[in-house]
Amino acid sequence: MGGRLTRVFRTFNVESRARREISKEKPTPAPRHSTSRVDELADNPEIQEQIYRKDDRLLTLLKDVYVASTDPPVRVKDGGDEHLPCKQEEKRLTKLGHLGDLDVNKVPKGKISIVEALTLLNNHKLHPQIWTAEKIAAEYSLELKEVNSLLEFFIPFTVQEFPKETRKAI
């Protein structure tokens, strides 16, 4: 509502206001200051000659200048500034390798790949007596607390196929 009201005031009598602005006399620019220095240089040949004349004394001094530059000595870093890992991460080979190039070959200890996660979740779902949390933790080098959380909060999807007779009923 406020936009309509402001638009009315903004567009009120636009044409006559525009004609009034166009018909005004344009202001004359302020007079420029005459630059007397440029005129003096152009008129006086002695100054022009001094500008273009070479000074032999300055040229000899310039020829005597010799600059020798050398690179600063290279300092070996003592490693105090950088935070390097104190040991390399231990990696383990994955249990599955049937996906070839798509599957990860080495995983850090304490972590699992997505394929392994889906496999262990499915194994636990199908055979919970065999694939207990302790066995999964030992098999995949995981902590028992993390395995319990994984089994509690993540459930793999199941695909259910309905027989053709029940499809018609649905």
Task: Walk me through this protein's architecture.
This protein is mainly alpha-helical. 48% of the residues lie in helices and 4% in strands. It is built from 9 helices and 2 strands; from the N terminus they run αααααββαααα. It has helices at residues 2-11, 14-23, 36-43, 45-52, 56-64, 114-126, 133-140, 144-153, 164-169; strands spanning 91-93, 106-108. Strands 1-2 form a two-stranded antiparallel sheet. Helix 7 (133-140) crosses helix 8.
Computed Rg = 44 Å
Alpha carbon gap, first and last residue: 53 Å
* Estimated share of beta-strand residues: under 5%
Helix content: 40-55%
On the 0 to 100 scale, the average pLDDT is 79
Morphology call: flat
Give, in order, the helices and strands. Answer: HHHHHEEHHHH
Q: Mind summarizing the main beta sheet?
A: 2 strands, antiparallel
Tally of extended strands? 2
Structural class: mainly alpha
**Count of individual helical segments:** 9
Uncertain stretches? none
Within the largest sheet, what's the order of strands?
Answer: 1-2
Question: Could you give a quick summary of the protein structure above?
Answer:
Binds calmodulin. Interacts with NDUFAF3. With 170 residues, the chain is mostly helical.
